[in-house]
Design goal:
32 strands, Tick-borne Encephalitis virus Glycoprotein, domain 1
Length: 596
Amino acid sequence: MPTATATPKKSPRALAAERCRSLTWRVIYFLGSLKLALLLLATIALACAVATFCESSFDSKIARAYIYKAPWFTVWLGVLCANLLCVTITRWPWQRKHLGFVITHYGIITLLIGAVIGSKLGFEGNVTLHKGEAPLDRVVTSRSVIQVENPTNGTLSLLPFDSETIRPSERWPKEVSVPDSRLKILVDGASAQLSTIESLAADPKGSPGIAVEFTTRMMGQHLSLPFLLDANGGKSSRDFFGLAQASFLPALPKREPIGIEETQIVFTKFAPVIESRSGFKTGITLSLSPDGRTLTAQLADGRSQDYVRADIQGKPQQLGPASFTLIDYWPDFVIENGKPRSASMFPKNPAVLVRVNAPRTLPKTGTDKPLLEMAPTANGVAYQLSRGGYSISSGTAKIGEPFALGWADWTATVADSIPQAKLVSERQPAPDGQPGAPGFRARLIAPDGTKGPTHWIGSGDVQTLTAGDAWLRLGYGLELLKVPFTIGLKSFEVPRVEGTETPSNFIATVEFQDPKTGAKTEGIAQMNHPASWPGGAFAITTGLNYKFSQAEWNPEDLDQTTLQVLYDPGWLFKWVGSLAICVGIFIMFYLRPKKS
């Protein structure tokens, strides 16, 4: 019987020559080539270097938007995965020596797939919880979006739009098409610091209003504030950086002077005669030497000073926060016809008349902040500066004339006074160094090409845009993402380091509920120990798990806390890929097959 002959094994050179005649294998060899791998790796390394520079010089949002989460970067990673896959295929049929090589390359592919899945399907956000309030089923992500209400059917559309990364300008505007309509939104400006600018406008049905400009040369700041009485004549108040307050009233209240003024007739042989119009005492004690040559002044805290009477007569003298002036001196004091005079030139009964001025002791209840009060008058604007309920100074300010406030070097100027006015609010870019919200400048373009007026729209704003007869409502802010469960705060505790007020931990006890089954579970989020939903081995292992970590807290309200939320469905791929890379490298370098 004829015997079967084994098919001869082809040599690597013959196998390569055969594959070169196949289009499929030529594509595989191209995708798995070393030149392509070097090009891909060099480009990714350069992109990462640029991203690192952007993160350090600008913002991490810029790096994420233009590199890490950009479509081109995802495509580049996809091509790199194809390169890694094809380079392993070119080694087919694999031998034992290829084991570490193949495992390492597939580990890198798995790791990259996990990174893309986490980037596209995962998110990072936060949720602020209040004890006793209804549970929440939405978290705030870091992604900025615009919400558009279609005027034809009332539907709402969410469109990703981050003004801080897109950075539109008049030269490089950005057009956004409104879904299910022919309307377009033209964005031609962006600002990272939008603030609300309020101004006055004439209104026949309005109330009296004034515009006041506050200026300081020392700090180089300029602040414009409008004040408007309400319809019932109520006052308008503004906080001044938390350090002072300014108010506009129908009329100035009557306040006693902040300084106490008293007169004292001081004798060497008798008790002094003290008179104060306000009824308050300065607390200054004056005494005269038996010969009338020396006057001693003593404060309530015990500090004292001696003066030569002849040297200080008629000259104001400062003693701590108080001051006094010696008005008259009688060597031999007598009263004649109801008036004091000196019976002789000899110091038989020396006496002096002294006027003393001292500030009142202000209350320590937080009401001692400086206060500027203003009221309309026929000649301008009457003003009064006070503190602790006592008047410091007052006057009348004319339009355009500055007056000192006594708050460092701040001055105030009444820029305008309108008998009938209304408040108009508008978003505008804030000066450099002042806080504000990110936003953009936009206008509506109608189907016929008509362009409407521009409006600045900040984060958290809702604005109606118009263009001819067309209109729509547009909102801008961080995305609210719905999650498949609810979370509520049961308690929040802040243990302290023993003997101090320094927090040693932050413990938030939260309750999760599955709306489908109604099942409730409790979780505890504390430092380095997040709470999670749904929890369990499967969810934690696969990454299909929502983790809640302590992020912020309010020292003044321990019934509130903010938790960071992290969801990464690509976590398992990253973990498996990283493990495969380590195993593959170990095999390649430590488990090499022995040469025969």
